[in-house]
Amino acid sequence: MSKNKKRVVVLFTYGGGLRGLIPAHIMARIESVTGMAMSDMVDIFCGPSTASILNSALNMPHPRRPDRPRFAARQMVRFYEREASYLFPTDSTRAFRGLIHDFNNRMMKIGQLDRLLKHGHYDNARLGRALRALFGKHKLEDSLSSLIIPAYNIEGNALQTIQEMQETPDDPVHTQNNIIDNGGYAMWFKNMRIQNARNLHPVPDIEFYNAVMGSTAAPTLFPCHRFVHKQADSNNSFPVSLIDGSIFDNPCISYMGAIRQHLPKDAEVVMICLGTGYTNKSVSHRDWNKYGALGVVDPSNDFPLINIFFHAPESALLGAFKDELGDNTYVFNKSLNDKGNANLPNSAPDDSSPENIKRLRQFAYDIMSENERDFNKVCHILAENGEDRLKARKRGSMFHLFGE
């Protein structure tokens, strides 16, 4: 690192439901090797869905020592292992219920049947109880390090309202940066705590619980999470209906869309990406043409169109992302698509079987073993950054003590 630049370590963690055990194991190993907490070593935490659970928990202050994290990464490993079967109980009829629900929506439209089928979702009240027990009433502003939680608001009309030419007062146009948006839009819930950060806005007045419930509301697994969001810089409040941040978020999007504008001009970014297993698959032109309108979103075909939607933005931005960060990017991930390896974990985000839990652990350790040199280098970078941050905090405490 150049002596004239300030290192900023960013940790991006991917989504993936119970596959969040993979980065949880990696972070637990990092904490064991360095002897430091992740919140001591990382400047900015980001990532959607299951990553928002991990990142928020690791940045939540301890009730008796508010400068220290309440949870270590190894405790989050136990959280996933303990809650897995509770959040995703074995349900052989769920896919069938979802199919009947979809058929009912398209053909019969029987309201009572619609309610009985529960839309094919898992019980989001269980997720709510688990997250409320984890986070209590803590808010985003309590985060120990910088934290970014992405979610997608499916209901628009919460943007700035302006009146255009030939527009009546009864028909307002909702815009942001002159982009009309009557539909949904991406939201970033941020608490930026890096030194000399630029372009800062007030930290949103939101509990970890609501932000994380929204970011983890994966379509097909859970319903959207709806609540009234209050803006921190005003008395304005508006309802939001949030779904999984994985809809749009990835390391490139996080960096380009949520982080870069806040970085000090002298920042040198080191970005560490912890994966939950690559799931994107190649589709032959023959298969694609054979799928038809419904086949491209059919789970029996592994949701080919949905997988493309998830991965296309990252592939589009990857070149610019690599050009900007150069060799300061470290990715820990591997494919889940090797059909010849019977020991791979399930690519599904909701397989809570004991066998799959064990395979997720082994998968995490295989990633670290196959990237041993980079893993050791990252541990060194993190430990060094943690020491620098500790020294900076001590200097700040001395200045405060002597009134400087």
Question: How would you characterize the overall build of this protein?
Answer:
- By secondary structure, this protein is α/β, with parallel strands linked by helices.
- The protein is built from 13 helices and 11 strands.
- Strands 1, 2, 3, 7, 8, 9, 10 and 11 form an 8-stranded mixed sheet that branches. It has a 3-stranded antiparallel sheet with strand order 4-5-6, with no helix packed on it.
- Strand 5 (173-176) and strand 6 (179-180) form a beta hairpin.
- The longest helix has 30 residues, at 372-401.
- The chain is globular.
- The model is unreliable at 160-167 and 398-404 (pLDDT under 50).
Q: What global shape is seen?
A: globular
Q: Report the end-to-end length measured between terminal Cα atoms.
A: 30 Å
Q: Any idea what the radius of gyration is?
A: 22 Å
Pairing-aware structural class of the strands and helices? alpha/beta
Biggest β-sheet strands, sense, barrel: 8 strands, mixed
Please provide the count of β strands: 11
Describe the protein's topology:
Blueprint: E1 6-13, H1 21-34, H2 38-41, E2 44-46, H3 50-58, H4 73-87, H5 94-108, H6 111-117, H7 124-135, E3 146-153, E4 160-162, E5 173-176, E6 179-180, E7 185-191, H8 208-215, E8 225-230, E9 237-244, H9 251-259, E10 267-274, H10 285-295, H11 304-325, E11 329-332, H12 354-370, H13 372-401
Parallel strand pairs: 1-2, 1-10, 2-3, 10-11
Antiparallel strand pairs: 3-7, 3-9, 4-5, 5-6, 8-9
Helix pairs in contact: 1-4, 1-12, 3-8, 7-8, 9-11
